[in-house]
Amino acid sequence: MSKTNFQLIYVLPNLFTASSAFIGVISMIAASKGEFEKAAWLIFLSLIFDGLDGRIARLTHTTSKFGVEFDSLADIIAFGAAPAMLLYFCCGHEYGRFGSLVSAMFVVFGAIRLARFNVMAPQSEPSVFVGVPIPTAAVFIAVWILMFQEYSVLKEYSVYIMISTLFVSLLMVSNIRYPSFKKVDLKKANVLKILILMIVAFSLLYLYPTEGIAILITVYLFYGPFRALFFVLLRKKRKI
Fold it and tell me: Could you give the CA distance from residue 173 to residue 148 in angstroms, rounded to a whole number?
């Protein structure tokens, strides 16, 4: 492989990272114009580019410290600032300082989550995330904004998405464990269960894509606190 080709391969994953950040900025511009549905789908598009950059870097063996840091900076734009602005322009502005606070806290806690992930990455378990990943939190906001656009009756309850966003922001910097699905246990005993869950999930997404994503992401987010609470109660019961 020539030196020129090697340099081009090195640039390729960072190009996807840059695209993710670029789309995040376009999403913010769309949100400022009141194009909330477009802004939400652009966040999903950023998620695709964000997923591709790391995989391409690993496939081409071009992973670097620069790429890791650049990815974090892109994530805070695409999955921190973009969903925060979408939330604020869509319904947060109706709540004055509280709306501003929720949007700002989402970005700040998202940045802390990314910084902590970069520090903990070498020692972290590949099967779990400590705290909610910022792309997951961004998808939560984007998909519920889409639900608000699809079902106008939900707009009367916009305060609940504000409170939920604040809760999700706290989950990002919590020590609650979430499954990462990076390494799925494919032992014979688990294959059938995984297959059935995947069929149910994809069927739901096929019939009701927006509603399906909203349900799945909400269940995933609340799974962590309920699981943590269950283990706390179980420990107390054993001590009695």
Answer: 27
CA distance 40 to 38: 5
d(CA 120, CA 132): 14
What's the pTM value of the predicted model, to 2 decimals?
A: 0.85
- Residue 63 sits in a domain of what CATH number? 1.20.120.1760
The H or E element that residue 213 is part of is helix 209-239
Report which of residues 59 and 161 the model is more confident about: 161
The amino acid at 61: H
- Whether 99 is in a domain gets the answer yes
Instruction: Give the residue, 39 or 235, on which the prediction is more confident.
Output: 39
The count of domains in the chain is 1
Residue 6: predicted pLDDT: 52
CB 15 within 8 Å of CB 8: no
The mean per-residue pLDDT over the stretch 83-109 comes to 95
Q: For 122, what's the count of Cα atoms within 13 Å in the CB-facing half-sphere?
A: 2
Tokens of 69: 């840091």
Tokens at 196, concatenated: 């059935």
